[in-house]
Amino acid sequence: MKPVRVVVAGIHGHGRNHVENVRRLAATGRAELAGVCDTRPAPGLDVPWSADLPSLITETGAEVAVIATPIHTHAPLAVAALRAGAHVLLEKPPTPSVEEFEQISVAVAETGLACQVGFQSLGSAAVGAAAGLLGEPIRAIGVAGAWTRPFSYYTRAPWAGRRRLDGVDVMDGALTNPFAHAVATALAVAGADAVSSVEGIELELYRANAISSDDTSSARLRLADGTVIAITVSLCAGRRTEPYLHLHGDTRSALLFYTLDEVEVDGVRTGFDRADLLANLLAHVREGEELLVPLERTGGFTRLLDEIRRAPDPLRVEGSRTEPSRLVLPGVEGLAVRAAAELKTLSELGFPGVLGARTTAPATPTEPVAEAAEPAAGPAVPIVAAEPVIWPESLLRAGPREVATYVRRGDLRPTDAPRPHLHPVRTLGGTVVTETQPADHVHHFGASVAISDVNGVNFWGGSTYVPGTGPVVLPNHGRQRRRLLRPVDGGFAELLDWVGPDGTVLAAEERTLVARTVPGAWALDVAFTLHNRTGEPLSIQSSACKGRTGAGYGGFFWRAPKDSPGLDAFTADASGERAVHGSLSPWLALTSDDWSLLFVQTIGLDPWFVRVAEYPGVGPALAWEEPLGVPDRLDRAITVVVADGRLTAERAHELAGAVPPPAPRDLQDSQDPRGSVA
Prior knowledge:
The protein is α+β, with helices and mostly antiparallel strands.
C-alpha cells in the first residue's frame, strides 16, 4: 500500500501523540508525516509547518488531516480540511453543538470524504462483544468514573476548565472531555448513534475547583428504545481508578472496562483487541475498509454535549478537602459505583450532603474561570466520608485481609511498556511495600514481570541500552495484553499476550498469583510460563548482555518504596548490596525498619538483580550476562513473604525453608471466551 500523506494540526498538546502515531505507522510503510499545522512552529520536526491548514494540505498533497486542536476550533478546521481535499481524523469530542456537528456532516456529504472521530475506545472489539458475554439483552447501562486531577490540569491551556472562551463554546468539563470516552462507549453499546437516538436527558453539574465547567457530574439519558444510561463521574477522587460501564441485563450484569478493552462477567475478565483509528482511516483511504467511528456514529454523544452546553452553570461544591496539589471529595468513588449499579443520579444518593459538603449557586452571573492553581475561597466545612463502596478491582486477600491490588492501567504511554502489576501491596499491618512510577524510574510499576529485550522489543519501559551509545528511548516498546483473568483459590490465573509495537504477538504467557497466610506474615506465590509464538527461538536479553555492566535486570521485579528507613539486603551467605547483587542463592531478603520482603525462587535459579542505595528493587535476572534463548517455553516461579518489621537472618532462613514448592498448574484448559484456547 502506498503510504498515505498525513498532516497533523495541533501538535503542542495531545497532538504530539498523533505525531508519534504517524511516525509509528510510517515505520510500517502505511503513512508519511507530510507536515504539521499550529499557531506556533514545531521545533525538532523536519517537515513543513504552517498555521494555515488548507494551504498546508494543498502544498503537501496530504490525503489525511489529523485535527487535535481545542474543541471550539473543530468544526471550522474540519470543514476547511475536507473542502481542501483531505480526509479527517477529528479528535474527540467532535463539536460543542449539534449545529456545528451538522456543518461537518454537510461537508462530508458534499465532498464524499471521510471524517473519523477519535473516540479510540470505539475501536475496541470489547464494545461489540459485551452483550454476547452477558448472554442476554442489555436493558440499562450505568457508567462510573473517578479520577483525580491536580490544580495544574485547569491551567494547562486558556480553555481548560471553561464552558466558554471569549464568547465561544469550549465545554471542557468532566462529562465532555476526560470522560467523553465513557459516555461515547455507553452510547455505542446501546446503539445510540444518531442525535435522535436520545429522547430525554437529566443533568446534574457540579464543580469543586475554581473553574466554570463541571468536575463532578451526573447525567441520565433515556433513549428512543427505552434504554436508560446513568452516568456519574468525578475528577475529585482520592485516587485514579479505571472507569467502567455497568451493563444491566434481565438477570445478570457485566462490567466493561473501556480503557482496558476488558469485559467482566461472573468474576472472569476477558480482554479484546483494539484497532488504531488512524490506521483504520488509512485502510479506508487505500482499500475501502469500513470506518470504525464515522462522524454519524457520534450523534448521540453530541446531543448530550449540546444539552450540557445549554444547561445552567454547575453548582459549587463547598467543603472539599484541599491537598497540596488538588481538591478531593472523599467517598465520591463509592457514590459513582452506587450510581452505576442503581442507575441513580448524585442528588438521589444524597450528594453532596452525604460527603459532609454542600452546594451554592454561582456567585455572579458571569462565569468563573480557571485562573490560578488554587481552589476558590469557600467556608471550611468538615467532610464526612460516604459509606465505603469497593471499586471493582482485582484484589488479593491473605485470609480475610486485602493485601494487594492487581492493576492494569489504561492511561499508560507506550514508553511505559504497559503491563499488569501489583500495587499497592501491603503488610498485614497496612504498610505499603511497593512503589509505582517513582521520579527516578517512571517505568517501574510495583511488582510485575518485565523484560528489557525480547527479540528487540522493550517490555521493561523507558530507554533501551544501545552498545556504543548508551541508553536511548526507541520506538520499540511492547505491551502485555490481557486475554483472560479468572479467580482461583487465593488469587488469580491469567492469560496474556506479549505484543510488539507492530502488533505481532511474540509470546503467550500463563500467570498465577496466589496470596496465603504464613505465621506472622503473608506470602505471595507468583508463577509464569512464556510460550514462544514466533516460530523461531526467542532471544531474551538485558542491558548487561549488551555491555552495561551489572544491569542484568529482567524477569519478575519488585520495586519497593524509596523513603523506607534502614534498607538492607542479605542472603544465606552474604550481606549488603554489592555482595548479593549477581549472587546465586535460593532466597534473598530486602529489609527496612518498617517491613521485610523475602524472595524465594521456587522454579528456576537465576542471579539476583539488587538495588539498595540508588533505589530499593529486587528480582531474579533471566539474562544476567548472556542472552537466554527460549525455543519453546520458559517456566519460572517465586514466592515473596511480606512481613512487618525487620526480619533477622535466622527468621528469614526459617521462612525460606518453609516455602513449599509450587502446586501443579495448567491453564491450557482455560477456554478463552473469544473462541480460542490458551
